[in-house]
Each structure stands twice: as C-alpha cells, then as structure tokens.
Amino acid sequence: MKRYFSLTLITTAILAGCATTSITSDDLAKGYNSIQADEIAKHVKVLASDEFGGRAPSSEGEKLTLDYLTKEFTALGFEPGNGDSFFQEVPLVSLEADSDMVLNIGGKDYQYKKDMVMGSSRISAQEGIANSELVFVGYGVNAPEYNWNDYEGLDVKGKTVVMLVNDPGFATKDPNLFTGDAMTYYGRWTYKYEEASRQGAAGAIIIHETAPASYPWSVVENSWSGEQFGFVKDNNNMDRVAVEGWVTVDVAKELFTKAGLDFDTAKAEAAKGAYHVDMGDLAATVNVKNTIKKSVSYNFIATLPGSKTPDEHIIYSAHWDHLGTDKNRKGDQIYNGAHDNATGTAGMIEVAEAFTKLGKRPDRSMTFLAVTAEEQGLLGSKYYAANPVIPANKTVANINMDSLNLLGKVKDISVVGIGKSQMDELLATAAKEQGRTVSGDPKPSSGGYYRSDHFAFANMGVPAMYAGGGSEAFDEETANYRKRMSLVLRGCYHQPCDRYRDEWDLSGAVQDLQLFYKVGFDISQQTQWPTWNENSEFQRK
Question: Could you give the 3-state DSSP secondary structure of residue 148?
Fold first, then answer.
C-alpha cells in the first residue's frame, strides 16, 4: 500500500519553525515509496558476495566496494563530497599478531583463542611482558564525574591490570550508579585499554563474560585475531600498554583461585565502589610478534547539494567494511558481513535515491558518508571527526545506519541512546505516519550508542541518531518469523554465516529507511537546527 504525507503534518512542521517549500506531499511520497525491499536485497547481494571477500580495509574487497558506491552514486546524480573526489584518505597500519603464542601465568600456559587472545597496539615487530605482576582493578574506570576511580592510590607501572567488561551500573542495575543498566563509554573495551595506558600499565587484560560484553567468546576470537587496524602515529603508539587482550571467564576464575581470591566475591566488591586488589604473586609473561603493514583506506563521501543553503549538510552514515577473509580458518573463510553492514550500506544507497525523486532538491545538502574500519574500533569515523570534510558548524545532524532490521515489520522503532537529542521528536513524528511509536534501546547494557559511527559525530557536538527495528511484531505471522530468524542472526554476528539469505524479511528495513528519509528531509527544511537535550553528555562545541 502506498503511503502519502498529509498536508496537516507539513503545516505542523512549518508552524514548528520550518521554511516553506515547493516540494509537495506527492513529491515526498515518490521518494518514500521508491525505497523497496528488492532494491535493498540487490545491493546486499553484491556487497556481501564472496567476490568482495568480506570487505576488509585496504583489500581488493575495498576497491570493489568503493567502485560500486562510486557507480551507484554517480548514476543517481550525486557530486563528489570531498572537493572533486568521492574519497577521503584514511592512513592505517595493520598489525597481525603471530598466533603461535602462549600466555603464561602462575606456571601454566594458556592457549591463543581457546583461553585468551592477546595483541599489541604498538607499531612494533615484537612486544611483550615478562613476569608482570597482576593487579585486579575492578572495572578499570577513572570517572571523576561519577566519583569513581579504580586506580586511586595505585601505581601500576610495569604491572598488568586485569578488569571486568562493562561498567558498575550494569552489574548493579542501580539507576543512580553511572547510567544503570545502560552502558557508558567507560564500559567499552576501547576505553579500558586507553585508561590502562594512561595509568602507565605494562599490560591490560579484560575478563570476557557474555552478558556484560553482549557477545560470546567466539566474537573475541574472530574480531581480535588476524589483522588489527589502527592509525599511523608519529609515536608508533608507544604510549599504549605493551600487551592488551582478553581471557575467558573460566581462565579468570582459575587465576583468582590461584591468587587466594574468589572471583565472584571480588566482582561483587568491584560493583560497590572503586576497587583494586593485588593478585598474590601471580605474574604474566607473553610475547607478541607482529607483522606490520602500512596502507591507505578510504571513507566514501557523496553530496546532493541543497537548493537554498548548500553549505549546511545533513549527513547519513554507514560503515562499508567488515572482517575480510581468514585464510587460516578451516571451512568457510569469508566474513561476508551481509547484515553487518552490507544492509546499512545498501540502505544508504536507497535513501540517497529517494532524495533524487523529489521535484526540487531539499533546502540543505544531503551528504552520504560510508566509512572504513568500523570493525577495528570506529577508525574511519574517528578519522573523519578529526579531519572533517564538512566542518562541525556546517553539519546540522547525523543519521546512522548499522545492521538494518531483517525481522519484518514492527509497530515501534527502537532508539539507541533515546532521550539525548531532539532527533527523537522528529523520528516520533515520522513514525506516527506509519502507525508506529518510538521505544527505547532494547539492549542498553550493550552500550550501542558508543559502538557505531554516529558516536564520532556526537563527540563533534553534532546531534546524531541511531535507530532501527523494534520489539513489537506487526502481526502473529511476523512474530513467529522473528523468533526463528533472530536465532540465526544472533549466532552469526561476526561469523562467516553472516551472509545474504533469501528468507530475510526486509519489509521492516524498508519501514526504517523510509523514516530516515523523512527525518532527514524534515531537518533539511527547518529553520532551526536540532539540539542536544540538556541532560545529554554531548553538546555543541
């Protein structure tokens, strides 16, 4: 059924501070209804094909991906977004640790991938720790605004810190502790290694647990082994700890017992307040041998110039990369990354095409940014934020697309980081036209707002929206389908089985992309820019 926009909503938008426009509701509907499931599927099939080899940065798969995006956006009439180029260079270095390593603690060798995954962010052929004393530092957090410092009064120079994943709010569910069940940036593995480095530690080990990490050990195996990308820096990352990595919770429990400690008791104490304790005479030794390759990867950027204020941009983002190919793996070696994130990249193309269906271009420019190396720690978007093609004071808002809804139509739409900005209100207005409501983050403990590329824009001060899917199935048939397919998707996160499937129901993805299109259009016509809410940790700079 086609859906058209009511003049009432357009009038309401004008009264709310929008400029008048010659774009009619029929024009809007043409773009809205041009977003189709079969078109999304067509793009995903190409991007997630074996030919593209898992779209690793600086690979042949990257070249194929960039060529595909260039072809599609050129055909749509978009202009290069970076001067006369569609590309922004992102200098990277890849470090691949030799898998022939063992972690020795307390006289026992722990095996790579089975028990632990270790590596080094230092751009060095060989790094290691030798007889480095272990210190448990709770959650490894130094957060003055929460009056919390696990390192207070502690000198960890030359030592290896061991810490829990996530943050204390998740453990206690206390809404007054950090942000309760919703993970903060302090719960992210990236922060924990950064803070351990600032404290002068020699090594940093995170204890993996599935619930607080929000993913199983297999994700650690696949995501932190093989090539690991980072930025090329003048200091070769020598300000980072020498060794960083993960151990399984079973290994952790064994180590705590050897140290004369009880893991569950120490974990409970760590959630009560800033906490650290020496782990007896346990010391760690591991050598990391790196194969180093310097390369250049690329962010892709394309723009449809606005008709009135073309220097002001609404930026849609998605990451084009995935984990590539693991030639050491038995069986299927290609991480096709169909859901994560060929769907988001395909969705970006569909929304871009929708804007070309209007009889007149929106007032502001519509810019589409496909970033590299998201899977390596949001590197492409971080680089863009540090070297913005469009200045922050000309970037009105960001709408991010990462892993679209494959579970069919829903009656709500989930907003990750709900309550942070006025973007929620714009989304709610558009969702109402679909008969949908806005709901909160379905899994706040995973810290989703700090785990995708909109986070870089938020740090720039740009209001950024990350939404999609929902929890309330459209009908009983869809509910049954969701139960079946969600099991498949959950088991395929960062696995070779994340590939395109004909049985996907992309009608829910269509719903969401139509909302993203409408929200972007509404922002493009408003006189006032969206703002952060007062209680948000992000504000315009």
Answer: strand
